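the three lines:
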Amino acid sequence: MRIHPALSFLAAVLALVAPAVAAPAAEKPDPAADAKAFQDFFRKKFPQVKFEDFVNGPYSMNEDMRKQWEEKEQFPPYEFALEAGKEMFEKPFKNGKTYADCFANGGIGIRQTYPYFDDKEGKVVTLELALNRCREANGEAPYSYVKDEMAALTAYMAYTSRGKPFDIKIPDDPRALEAYERGKEYFYTRRGQLNFSCASCHVQNPGERIRAEILAPALGILNAMPIYRSEWSGMGTISRRFTTCNSQIRGVPLEPQSEEYRDLEYYLSYVSNGLPISGPGARP
Amino acid sequence: MTASLGCSAEQLATRRLILKGVAAVTLIGLGHAAFGAAPAFAANDPYPEDAFRLKGAAEAIKALYGREHEPSDKIKLDAPEIAENGGVVPIALTTTLPDVTSISFVVSENPNALAASYKIPEGTVPAVANRLKMAKTSNVIALVESGGKLYSATKEVKVTVGGCGG
Amino acid sequence: MASSIRVRAIQNGDVTDVQTLIQHPMDTGLIKDAKGELIPAHFIQQLTFEHNGKTVFLADWGTAVSKDPYVKFAFKGGAKGDDLKVSWVDNKGATDSLTAKIQ
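prediction for all of em together
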C-alpha cells in the first residue's frame, strides 16, 4: 500500500529519465517540473505534515519522537558547536582577513544559496567546499569535511540563514543541467551490498523504522544541516551524512566533496527549494 | 583553533595518560580509590559515592535512602515510550507531594542503577527535568522523598539504540 | 576558552526557571576508544546552584547522566537581576563555575 505511490513516483521519474537515455536529443531536463513533482509526492504521501515541517525530518512523522526533540531544543545539543562556529568565523586568519571576505554579504544569511553552479569552473560549489577554499586562499590548512570544525562553521552560517527558503539556482547552462541530472541519477541509483538507493529509504519509506531508526524524508533533509546526532554523540556535516549513508547500505563511501557528492547535494537542495533553512539541527 | 573544540588529539592523549595512571594504582591495590577522591566542597552534602557504585536498583535505593518506597499517584513521571537514542533520554518529574526534600532517578537495567539524585531545599519547586543514558529497555524508577517518607513512580522506556555506544 | 556552563535563568511570576547545559564528556568508563582502549570514567559528580549564598538546587550525578548534561528546575525567592552561581566538580577533581543574572 505504502510503496504504491512511491513506485508510481519512481515510474514518473524514470519516465523523465528514460527518453533522455534512449534518445539524447529528445527532451531537455526540467528541474522545475522535477522539484514540483518531488514536493507534490511528499505532500500527498504525508497530508498531515505541514509543508515547512518537512525540514524537521523524522520529528515531523512521529509524535513520541517529536516530544523528545522539543525537549532537546529547549537547550539544544548543538549549542556549543554553534558558539564555537561563531567564534571561528569571526576570528581573523593569520593574514588578517576573515571568512567574511570570501562570501557575499560577509557570509551572513547566505547558506540558502549553496550549493551553486560556478560557471567559470563549470562545477557545483558547496558551502563546505567554499569554506575550505577560503581557508586555502588565505594560507590556512583546509579542515576535514567530516569533523567538528567544519560542522561548527556551517552550523553558524546555517543559523544566520534560519527561516530563509532554499534558493538554489540552475542557470541555463548545459553543464549545470548535467550536474543536476548526475545528482538525480546518483540519488535514484541502487548501490552497496544492501542494494539501496538514497530514494529507497528517504523517498519510499520516510517515517518508517529501519531497525531502530525512523527514516527522514528526503524533502528538506539538507535544510537542517549540519546536525548534532545523538548516535554520533556529536556534530556532522552534509559530507558526513552522505558518507555515513553509503556505509550504512554497505557501500563504499566516496571522498567527501567529490564531484558526485557535490552534484547530489545540488539536486537534493534544488528539489527542496522553498523550504526554510532550519540548521543546525538535532537528530537521534 | 582546533584546541577550542571537542575531541582534540590532546584530549585523547590525556585520556591515555590517565588510563596508565589508573592501571598503576590498581596494581598497588587501591582499585577505584583513584576516582573516589571526594570533592572538597559541599561538605554538608557529601556525594553518595556508594549508592552510585552499586549495581542493582534495590541496593542503590537502600544505600541512598535506607528505606522502602511506596508507589504514589501524586508523582508525574514523564519519559518517552521509546527512546530515540539511549544516550539521551529526556526524563522529567513533577509532584504534588508536600515537603519534598529530594528527587532521584534509577534506571533498573543500567550497569549502575542510580543515575541522578537531586536535593530540593525549601523554596525550590519539586520538579526536575534531565537527560539520562539507558543501556537497554528498562524501568525508570523516580523516587521522591516527602515529609520523611519515600514515594515512587515507575515507567518502562523501550530502548532500541543503547546509550552505551560512542 | 569559554565557560563549560550555559545557564538560562528566567523570572516567571514568583518562580525562577533555570535551565543549564554543561560541556562535559560524562564518560562511563565502560566504552573503548577507536584504539580499543577503555576510556576511563570521567563525569560530573556534583552540580550546585546558589542564590544569595543559599543552595537552591544540588545535583548528585553518576555516569548515567548524558554527555553534555542538561538539567532544569525552578525555585522561589529570586528576582530579575539577581546573581545565580552555578558550579560543578567532577570525579577527577576538575571544577568550573559561572555566575549568571536572572533575566
